[in-house]
Amino acid sequence: MVRRPRRSVAQRLHDERTATLLGIALGISFVVCFLTGLITQFAQHPLDLGFLSMPASPGWLYRVTQGTHVAAGTLAVPLLLAKLWTVYPRLFTWPPLRNVAHAVERISLVPLVAGSLFQLGTGLANGAHWRPWLFDFPVVHYWTAWIVIGALVAHVGAKWTIARRSLGRAAREAPQPAGSGLDRRGFLAAVAAAAGVVTLTTVGQTFRPLGRLALLAPRRPDAGPQGIPVNKSASGAGVVELAMDVRFRLVVEGRVARRLELSRAQLLALPQHSAHLAIACVEGWSSAAVWSGVPIRDLVELAGGDPEHSTVVVHSLQRGSAYSSSQLNEPHVRDRDTLLALAVGGEPLHIDHGYPCRLIAPDRPGVQQTKWVTRMVVT
Ligand SMILES: Nc1nc2c(c(=O)[nH]1)N[C@H]1C(S)=C(S)[C@@H](COP(=O)(O)O)O[C@H]1N2
Ligand SMILES: [Mo]
Fold first, then answer.
1. Listed residue (57, 78, 150, 49) closest to 107, CA to CA
2. What are phi and psi of 108, to 5 degrees?
3. How far apart, in whole angstroms, are the C-alpha atoms of residue 362 and residue 340?
């Protein structure tokens, strides 16, 4: 009697069907990351196509897209590790390049694998404020995303036939080779459980009902003065003296009939408006509160500008940072909830949240919610 050699657990799990199923899950998470990443990119760097600019409502939209971006990337980590483990023996097949098609397929794996590891690794590190690199993270993360998605399309094309075959009935019903230990279903269940655990223990940084489970999240959404986290403090930004100076003035200028210079007391004397708005940091955390202050459109109007058809650039007391200024598009200027905030939760702003006044608007990446605003330029 010929006995089939017993195959180890490892060998049995290196099959096409496992690789395909993991690949589908990973592919979906990458497409979600890519699309939600594009939203963040174009919210910060509008294409000037008007119709593609970030809307100001619904106010929860950006919070959800960016929370999803970081959650999908986090969940992809166990999927990618499992997928690489499933397929790595194939990297050592002989001959390494069989023909042109095979060569193209294998070479496209380099940007796919290296790019995926790079995107997930730098994305997680950025969220954890561990930034040992010298490049500009948003720029490199954005361009690498195109490389990865391109390589992914090529990979899916190259593997289409094999993947379809491995999902077919015959493959499903074929007996798995004998052996003890983990079978495919058990392995996939373990990977799914790992993905579930990393998601449940991090998504609370943006999804409040799970806040208490956010053990692995880099940021607790309510840790900080006035219940809102602080990345950049006033002393870190070097603005403490200027922000506390009684001579502080908010300047409104640009395409307006008259230039305004308003003290904080004068701003407080204007009609105040309150809105429940979130700060949604690109790092993945978000935190909502009731902010009150003067709608930006009222300030534009007071200066004799056109609040319906203007964009506004706000400038901070802080100098020399990428976050020292930001631009509001027309829909955001028009929206009454776009505020020059003077208070949060009914209390005057804490200096680390931008005292004397900060910008806060619905559907805006956190990096654009400029703190310590001192100048508005209407265009
Ligand atoms: N002037 C100024 N405004 C700023 C920042 C900054 O560093 N300087 N950080 C931005 C970022 S990245 C976010 S997420 C929000 C909230 O940041 P915080 O946690 O530092 O308050 O404020 C934004 N406004
Ligand atoms: Mo941020």
1. 150
2. -70, -15
3. 12
- Helix pair angle (16-44, 137-167), 10° resolution: 150
CA of 197 from ligand 1 middle (Å) equals 30
State which ligand 1 atom lies nearest to the alpha carbon of 282.
Answer: 14
For 150, the 3-state DSSP assignment is helix
Our mutation pick for probing the ligand 1 site, out of 231, 282, 324, 363, counting the most ligand atoms within 8 A of Cβ, is 231
pLDDT in tens, 191-228: 999 999 999 999 999 998 999 899 999 887 778 999 99
Nearest ligand to residue 280 Cα: 1
Q: How far apart are CA 323 and CA 339, in angstroms?
A: 18
pLDDT number for residue 101:
82
Q: Quick check: helix, strand or coil at residue 366?
A: helix
Q: Answer for the pair 379, 312: CB distance below 8 angstroms, yes or no.
A: yes
User: What are the CA-CA distances from residue 302 to residues 10, 241, 247, 295 (Å)?
Assistant: 71, 29, 21, 11
**Alpha-carbon gap, residue 280 to 71, rounded angstroms:** 13
* Of the residues 185, 213, 241, the one at which a domain ends: 213
Residue 122 CA to ligand 1 centre (angstroms): 20
Find the range with the poorest average confidence among 85-89, 181-185, 301-305.
181-185
> Which domain, by its residues, includes 275?
226-378
From the alpha carbon of 318, which atom of ligand 1 is closest? 1
CA distance 359 to 363: 12
Say what the pLDDT of residue 137 is: 95
Q: Which of 232, 235, 286, 325 to mutate to test the pocket of ligand 1 (most atoms within 8 A of CB)?
A: 232
- Measured CA to CA, the distance from residue 251 to residue 261 in angstroms comes to 5
120 in a structural domain: yes
| Residue closest to 205 by CA, chosen among 188, 225, 229 | 229
Q: Do 117 and 32 share a structural domain?
A: yes
Q: Could you identify the atom of ligand 1 that is nearest to the CA of residue 236?
A: 7
Q: Are 111 and 245 in a shared domain? A: no
